[in-house]
Write a sequence for this structure.
DNA sequence: CAAATTTATTTGTATTGACAACTTTACCAA
DNA sequence: TTGGTAAAGTTGTCAATACAAATAAATTTG
C-alpha cells in the first residue's frame, strides 16, 4: 500500500490514499474515519505521521476534527471557478435552467494597446470573448486575455464546451495562486447593449479580474459585463484560506 | 516570556511573540529569523513545538521556509478584510485620501423579520449600520448582522474606529473559514439616495456577504451599497487557498 | 584566484512516549 | 426511568531522538 522507499513522503501517500477513499465513497460525507491510533496501527506508522496526513486534508477542506470524538468527512465543497462565473452557472444548472456559452471572438494572439488597466498593455496576449445566455437571454459578456508565454499554443485548442480552468490545469499545469478583482457599475454602450439585449445607457455590472500564477504576477486578465437584472452574480469566498 | 501555565498553548504564544517581533520590525521583511534549534534553545521548548508555531505563521503568509537555509520574513501582504471594504480603503489611505467611517445605527440586538436572504430571519441578531465617506463624499452604506450567541456582549464594546475583524479575532477568537457573496445593481430608494448623496433611482452596487465560522454556517451577514461612480470596489482573491 | 570538494547548518520526515482536555459510553443509585 | 459518576476512547499538546535532503560556508586543490 504505502511505500517507504518511494520519493513521496509517507504522510503524503497516506493523505492521497484517504483522499481516494473519500472520493470513492468508502468514507462517506458526514461519516467518521478510523481514529488516529487505528490508522497508525493499520498502516504501521507513527501517530504524528498520521496527523500530518490528516492536517493536510483538513486544510484542504475534506475533513474536520472533533476533539474527543474523531475525524469526520466534510460535504464536498464546490471549487471556485475563477476563470468565469464562479458558482453562478452551476446553481442555474441545478435549477434546470439552460445555460449556453458561445465564443464571440475566437482565441487569437493580439497586441494590446491603450488599455491602462490591462496588465498586457503594450504586449502580446491571447484574447477571446464569449457570451453566455440563460434560458435564451444574454446575461454575461466576457473578454479574456491570457499570458502569451504561459498559454503558448492555446489557440490550437478547442475552447467550446470546455472550462478554461480545466484546460489551464490539465494542459498547462496552472492553478491560480491568487489575484484581484474589481466591481463597478458601467453604462452599456451600443455594442454591449446589442449583445446583452438591453437599452443603450443601461447600467451593467462590470467586473475585472487579475489572476496570479506562482511565477507570474498576472497570467489571466478578464473583463465581464453582467446583467444583474437577470441573475445574481455570486461567489464563494476563501474556503480554507483563512483557517 | 512564555507561560506554560496559561490556557493558551505554548506554540500559540510563541507564534504571537514572533508575530509581534515581525510587526515591531525586529524581524524585518526579507530577513532570516533564528533557526528552529536556536528558537528551541532560547525558549526552552522542543523543536516540534517551534515548528507548530512557525507552521501557523507560514500559513498566515508572514514567513516562508527554505530547506537548508532558514526561515524568512515575507513582505507584508495586505490582509483581506472580509467584514468590510476589503482592500479599497487601505488603497485610498495610501493615496492620502481621507476615509471616514461613522456608525449610523449603534449596535443592538433585534429580531430579524421579513428578510428572506438574511440568515438570521426569524431570529435575534446584533445589527448595526455605518456610512463611509471618502474625502467627505458618502460612498458606502453598510448594514451588518452578527450571530447573537457568537458575538454575545458585543453591544458593550466600542465599535468606532475599530475594525470588526480585529474585534472578532482578538475578543472572540473568531476567523471566518469561508463564505459567499453576491453582487447586483440595485436602484437607490429615497433613504439610501439621501445617505449616499445620489438621486433617487440611481444605480448602486449592492453586495451581500455571508461569512462562515468553523462551527457556524453563518456568523455574519452584511449588506453593502456602494457608489462605484466614486470608487472602485476591489478585492483580493484567495491568496493561499489554492497553493 | 577560481573551481571543486568537504564540512557545517538548517529544514523535512519520522519515531516512541507521555500527559492534558474533551467526548462518548457504560454503570450505578435514586 | 432519570441523573450522576466513572471509565474508556479520541484528539490536542509537548517532548527527545534520529536520519534524510538541501543549502551555505569553509577548505582544499589545480
Amino acid at each position: 500500500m504505502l511505500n517507504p522507499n518511494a520519493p513521496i513522503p509517507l504522510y503524503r501517500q497516506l493523505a492521497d490514499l484517504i483522499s481516494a477513499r473519500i472520493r470513492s465513497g468508502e468514507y462517506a460525507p458526514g461519516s467518521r474515519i478510523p481514529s488516529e491510533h487505528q490508522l497508525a496501527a493499520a498502516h504501521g506508522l507513527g501517530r504524528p505521521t498520521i496527523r500530518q496526513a490528516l492536517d493536510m486534508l483538513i486544510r484542504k477542506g475534506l475533513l474536520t476534527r472533533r476533539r474527543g470524538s474523531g475525524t469526520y468527512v466534510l460535504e464536498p465543497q464546490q471549487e471556485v471557478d475563477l476563470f468565469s462565473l464562479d458558482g453562478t452557472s452551476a446553481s442555474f444548472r441545478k435549477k434546470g435552467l439552460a445555460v449556453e456559452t458561445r465564443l464571440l471572438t475566437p482565441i487569437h494572439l493580439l497586441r494590446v494597446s491603450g488599455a491602462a488597466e490591462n496588465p498586457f498593455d503594450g504586449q502580446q496576449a491571447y484574447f477571446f470573448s464569449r457570451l453566455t445566455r440563460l434560458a435564451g437571454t444574454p446575461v454575461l459578456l466576457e473578454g479574456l486575455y491570457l499570458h502569451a508565454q504561459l498559454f503558448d499554443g492555446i489557440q490550437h485548442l478547442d475552447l467550446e464546451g470546455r472550462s478554461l480552468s480545466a484546460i489551464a490545469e490539465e494542459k498547462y499545469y496552472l492553478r491560480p495562486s491568487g489575484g484581484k478583482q474589481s466591481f463597478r457599475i458601467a453604462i452599456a454602450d451600443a455594442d454591449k447593449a446589442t449583445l446583452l439585449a438591453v437599452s443603450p445607457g443601461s447600467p451593467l455590472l462590470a467586473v475585472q479580474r487579475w489572476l496570479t500564477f506562482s511565477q507570474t504576477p498576472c497570467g489571466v486578465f478578464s473583463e465581464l459585463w453582467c446583467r444583474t437584472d437577470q441573475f445574481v452574480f455570486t461567489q464563494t469566498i476563501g474556503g480554507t484560506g483563512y483557517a
Q: What stands out?
A: Residues 35-37, 51, 65-71 of chain A lie near DNA strand D (CB under 10 Å from a C1'). Confidence is low (pLDDT under 50) at residues 239-243 of chain A.
